[in-house]
Amino acid sequence: MLSILDLAEKISEYLSPEQVDQVKRAYYYAEQAHDNQIRRSGEPYVTHPLSVAYILAEMRMDHQSLQSAMLHDVIEDTGITKEALTEQFGEAVAGLVDGVSKLTQIEFMSHAEAQAENFQKMAMAMANDIRVIMVKLADRLHNMRTIGVLRPDKRRRISKETLEIYSPIANRLGMNDIRIELEDLCFFGVHPMRASRILAALNGIRDVREALVEKSRVIMADHLENEQIPARVVGREKHLFSIYQKMKSSGKSFKEIMDVFGFRIVVNDVDTCYRVLGAMHALFKPVPGQFKDYIAIPKSNGYQSLHTILIGRHGIPIEVQIRTEEMEDMANNGIAAHWLYKEGSEVSESVSSSHNRARQWVQGLLEMQERTGNSLEFIENVKIDLFPDEVYVFTPKGKILELPSGATAIDFAYALHTDLGNQCVGCYINRRLSSLSQPLESGQTVDIITSVNAGPNPVWLDFVVTGKARSNIHHVLKHQQAEQSQELGKRLLEKALLSFDMSLDAVTPEAIDGLLAATGLESVESVYQDIGMGNRVAYLTAKQLLPDGLVEQDEANENKALVIKGTEGLIIKYAKCCHPIPGDSILGHFNAGRGVLVHVDHCQQVNEARRKKAKIIDLAWNDQVEGEFTVPIRVEIKHERGLIATLATKINSLDTNIESINVLDLDAFNSRVDIAINVHDRVHLARIMRHIKNIKSVTRVSRVKATNH
């Protein structure tokens, strides 16, 4: 078992004795705080933060990161406050710990919402200190290493979340070693059988494959030595998840994928990289169109390397990556390489550029967060931006922009500037007028045509791929819709008031205050917006603004009872998923353009609306409600000649009508009859069901429960 002495020995290689002591102090504090807490594996809880700190120590992270790793569960699990940690270890460490801690005091409607809200909190903390994500990734990696003690369903859920969020973040930050390990561990968590079979197949060919790889490696190394180029040549192992993904995406068999050999050639400087490339192309024939220069144009996560594919001996394809030692370190550890927080450290331009890219990405997250009100929508936009495939395109002035694969000119415009995207009306691609929906390809030059009076088109949402473009378009469209709805609603209300010989100018402030109190809205503009969007009836809203004398006069002309209390002035519709009838407990939710949709309170759609943070209102049926309401019932019967006709006659005799009837044979002896009937209320429905139940061949009668359509 790992001990604090093992960690101290590891970090003393690169930290000062004072810093090592600070890390040890954090360990003893965590040990005391987590006293008597046990992990699912049966080990003392403190072994987890110690292991997280050791993972960061392997990346040579600074002492504050290691202290935070030791303390990362203290706020969440032990009741110790952020203020107490600040007093003991300083603001930087306390801020890191708080950034990693989950929002445990808030109750969420679903796990997805909790996940999204916690990610939002972490994104904000990352903007202050990017080390938050380093601690979180190390925490997730150790949890994945020890996930075997959990139930299969929980393993699957955590693995899926890691694959969707944390593994792509590790990739986005260039932390390749962590990404690979997370992906392989998640593969066993999500698809244990497939992972085990690929691992067994890999072990089965390992000896033969290693001999072939070594033979090719020696040929390449000898050739470079003859050319007097100092270089280190190593065989590159494919990891399980990448093999599975290639099999899945390309439709190739395991054998076809393993027939391609990978090598990495590491040298001392950039010039030598290009000399090695020339030497390799002289040794083996290169495959046309398969050369990529990520040194001249680095990937968005700072990755740099030359990639080429060669045809080796006996026609075997060979993938070669050529890079410097520093690029190798960057490729494996990303922003953890040569960490900027180390005192007195000097970093190269490429390392500094990688850190700046990471900070720009986090800043982009925060901007997206400000435009997106819903945490679930925010995390979906983040997931879109975490996909690794990229295209590299140029601005007319020669600036290189990296975008996700499938990005369009609209994505390009928003990536350059929000205003450029909002005012975009067309584009030139390689100086030719092109469609805004055309996916961009690497090497193209894109020029955006703008107009000051233009605005985003809702159709753009069908083809944009970046989270920044999507969130900006949503934001502007919502704002435009609100303004247009307000203007329309005000005109409609003015017109409705004219029918009572009134105008908006004549409405008293008291009447407006009364309307706002009755509707629960914050301003008269919100009332206009509701009317303009079709959620509220202008005529009924106008009635609510009338002086008492005019209201009494109008009510004398119209005696009809309001069907549902709490919907005064609103358009109401009955949900077809659950068919509410008088007597049911009901709720309503606002649906843009459709007014209030009335549901029974246990309907799945209401839970779904709550998850999406829709406005839910309590409703009650009016005591004098009249009318007919459609409700579906299900009747199970034994086969008997003429029974359907008997059933229909019986229903029609009970003061109701049949809207539809559908018969399904369950087996040779039994059938199911689904019938939609009109009823006045629950009492009327119960009487009908009781009479149907008395028919001799009927075995069961039930009201069809709310469905999740």
Number of helices: 28
Mean pLDDT: 81
- Globally, the shape reads globular
Q: Beta-strand level of the residues, as a percent range?
A: 15-25%
Low-confidence stretches: 103-109, 340-345, 551-562
Mind summarizing the main beta sheet? 6 strands, mixed
Helix and strand content put the structural class at alpha+beta
Q: How far is it from the N-terminal to the C-terminal residue, by CA?
A: 53 Å
How many β strands by DSSP? 20
What is the alpha-carbon Rg in Å?
A: 33 Å
Helix content: 40-55%
Task: List the keywords.
single chain, 709 residues, alpha+beta, six-stranded mixed beta sheet, five-stranded mixed beta sheet, 28 helices, 16% strand
Please characterize this protein's 3D structure.
It is a single chain. The protein is of the alpha+beta class and 709 residues long. 51% of the residues lie in helices and 16% in strands. Strands 1, 2, 3, 4, 5 and 6 form a 6-stranded mixed beta sheet that branches. A 5-stranded mixed beta sheet has the order 12-16-14-15-13, covered by helices on one side. Strand 18 and strand 19 form a beta hairpin. Helix 10 packs antiparallel against helix 11 (176-190). The chain is globular.
Helix and strand layout, with pairings?
Blueprint: H1 4-11, H2 17-33, H3 47-58, H4 63-71, H5 74-78, H6 82-89, H7 91-100, H8 111-128, H9 131-145, H10 152-172, H11 176-190, H12 192-226, E1 232-236, H13 240-250, H14 254-258, E2 261-267, H15 270-283, E3 285-286, E4 292-293, E5 306-311, E6 317-324, H16 325-333, H17 349-371, H18 375-385, E7 390-394, E8 400-404, H19 409-416, H20 418-422, E9 424-429, E10 432-434, E11 446-450, H21 467-498, H22 509-519, H23 524-532, H24 538-545, H25 548-557, E12 564-565, E13 572-574, E14 586-591, E15 595-600, H26 604-611, E16 616-621, E17 629-638, H27 643-652, E18 658-665, E19 670-679, H28 682-693, E20 698-703
Parallel strand pairs: 2-6, 13-15
Antiparallel strand pairs: 1-2, 3-5, 4-5, 5-6, 7-8, 9-10, 9-11, 12-16, 14-15, 14-16, 17-19, 17-20, 18-19
Helix pairs in contact: 1-3, 2-4, 3-4, 3-9, 4-7, 4-9, 6-7, 7-8, 7-9, 8-17, 8-18, 9-11, 10-11, 11-12, 12-13, 17-21, 18-21, 21-23, 21-24
